[in-house]
Amino acid sequence: MKKLFPLSLLLFSVVTHASVYRCEQNGVTLFSQTPCADNAEKLAQYDTTPTPASRAATPPTRDSAQSHNATDSLQQISLNVRKQSLERQLQQLNNRIRNLEQERNAKLSEITGEDIQSPDAVTGRTFIAGAAEEMRSTLNHYQLEISKVQQQAGRVTEQLRQLEAL
User: Fold this and answer.
1) For 100-103, which contacts have Cβ atoms below 8 Å and span 24 or more sequence positions?
2) Residue 156 CB-density burial (10 A; 0-12 exposed, 13-18 middle, 19+ buried)
3) Which one is predicted more confidently, 7 or 76?
4) How far apart are CA 143 and CA 141, in angstroms?
5) In 33-83, which ranges are E strands?
6) Where are the beta strands (DSSP E) in 12-136?
7) Which residues are paired to 31 by β-bridges?
8) What pLDDT does residue 126 have?
C-alpha cells in the first residue's frame, strides 16, 4: 500500500500538467497538446493541479434577493413581450376595420355610381329599388364584419389595460 501512494502521486502530477505545442504542417500552423511534428515548438506548460484554495471553494450561490430580482426581471420581460404582442394585434385589427370600411365605401360608390339608362320610368324605379336593397345588404354585411373586429379589438384593449395595471 505504501508503494502505491508515491506511484499514484507521480501519475497524478503527470496528468495535471498541460503543454501547448505549435507545428507547421503543409504550410498550416497547428496547435496541439502533443508535438505534432519534428519541428514542434513548445509554447507553454500549464500546471492544472488544483490548489487547496480552489478545491475548498464552492460554486457561488445566489442569495434570495438576487434570485428574486432575476425572477422579477423575467416576469417584466414576459409582460413587455405580451404587451407588444397585444399592441401589434390591436394595430392589425384596427387596420382590418379601416380596410373593411374602405371596401364598404367602394362597394356603395359602385352601386350608386351605376347609370340608370332605362327607356321608361318603371324600369328606372325597379333599378333604384334594387340598388337600395343592394346598398342595405352591403351596409349590413360590412357592419356585421366591422362589429366582429371591433369586439376583438375591445378584448385586446382590455387585456392591455390589465397588463398595464400590473
Assistant:
1) 100/142, 100/145, 100/146, 100/149, 101/142, 101/146, 103/142
2) buried
3) 76
4) 6
5) 41-47
6) 17-25, 28-32, 41-47
7) 22
8) 66
Q: Tell me the C-alpha to C-alpha distance, in Å, between residue 82 and each of 65, 90, 136, 154, 155.
A: 26, 12, 40, 16, 14
CB atoms within 10 A of CB 93: 20
Q: How much is the average pLDDT of 36-45?
A: 71
**14 pLDDT above the threshold of 50:** no
Grid cell 500552423 is found at 29
| Residue 115: burial class (beta carbons within 10 Å; 0-12, 13-18, 19+) | exposed
| Residue 51 DSSP symbol | P
Its pTM stands at 0.49
CA distance 126 to 35: 101
* Distinct helix (H) and strand (E) counts, the chain: 4, 3
Give the per-residue pLDDT at 44.
Answer: 62
> Rounded to an integer, what distance in angstroms lies between the CA atom of residue 25 and that of residue 5?
42
